[in-house]
Design goal:
By secondary structure, the chain is an alpha/beta fold. The protein folds into two domains: 134 residues, Response regulator (Rossmann fold), CATH 3.40.50; 73 residues, Arc Repressor Mutant, subunit A. It is 53% helix and 13% strand. The protein is built from eleven helices and six strands. It has a six-stranded parallel beta sheet, with helices on both faces. Strand 1, helix 1 and strand 2 form a beta-alpha-beta unit. Helix 6 crosses helix 11 and helix 8 crosses helix 11. The two termini are 30 Å apart. This is DNA-binding NarL/FixJ family response regulator. It comes from Nocardiopsis metallicus. Keywords: DNA-binding, Phosphoprotein, Transcription, Transcription regulation.
């Protein structure tokens, strides 16, 4: 069972998300919080598999709460609930170690896929927001971004396959099963991909996979 913590100051949003998650018998909302500080406290006490966190909240905002949860409860994956027009917040969340970005107005199936991906150690980006996240990366990292795109062509065929599946949100174990590799070999490929693309984590690599066209925006399935 995947335990989820909902952190959002809007009761109607929490109710909607809870209803969608309730359609999956393997996902359970174990706690809800209406502000960031309460969310951090509940993450510490409940140790959920995934924390779904809104960005804009009074008091401790979602970015601060996400970063604190990552520090205090490293076993909990963090997915940010966002809306269009908040790219600068998404970039800051990326820097804070968020594992996924989901649109409140997106397809409900994306929410379920995203929660599962983050719970299993993968990364998930709503296809509609992936390109905007990449475009929102700040100017100071533009050189790294260009260098990463150049290096993408230098990845081996197997590394591109791994990157495509990583970009679709699969964990190392799932990638291994899909490509008939042991998990240790997948980890080695992922480390090499990070180094060649100058990506600091799975989310940055996933963003580049979307930008490079390795993941279909329509279906979020790797080509």
């Amino acid at each position: 069972m995947i335990g989820v913590l909902l952190v959002d100051d809007e009761a109607m949003v929490r109710a909607g998300v809870r209803s969608i998650l309730g359609n999956d018998p393997e996902i359970e909302v174990v706690a809800e919080a209406s502000d960031g500080r309460e969310g951090v406290d509940l993450a510490w006490s409940h140790r959920p598999d995934v924390a779904l966190i809104d960005i804009r909240m009074p008091g401790m905002n979602g970015l601060e709460a996400a970063a604190e949860i990552r520090r205090a409860v490293p076993g909990t994956g963090v997915a940010i609930l966002t809306t269009f027009g908040e790219e600068e917040y998404v970039v800051r969340a990326l820097d804070g170690g968020a594992d996924g970005f989901l649109l409140k107005t997106g397809d409900p199936r994306e929410l379920l896929l995203g929660v599962r991906a983050v719970a299993e150690g993968g990364a998930f980006l709503s296809p509609k927001v992936a390109r905007r996240v990449l475009n929102g990366l700040n100017h100071e990292r533009s050189t790294d971004r260009l260098r990463a795109r150049e290096r993408l062509a230098q990845l081996t065929a197997r590394e591109r396959e791994v990157l495509a599946l990583l970009g679709a949100g699969l964990s190392n174990g799932e990638i291994g099963r899909r490509l008939f590799m042991v998990e240790g070999t997948v980890k080695g490929h992922v480390s090499t991909i990070f180094r060649r693309l100058d990506a600091r984590n799975r989310v940055e690599a996933a963003v580049l996979a979307h930008e490079a066209g390795l993941v279909s925006p329509a279906s979020d399935n790797p080509r």
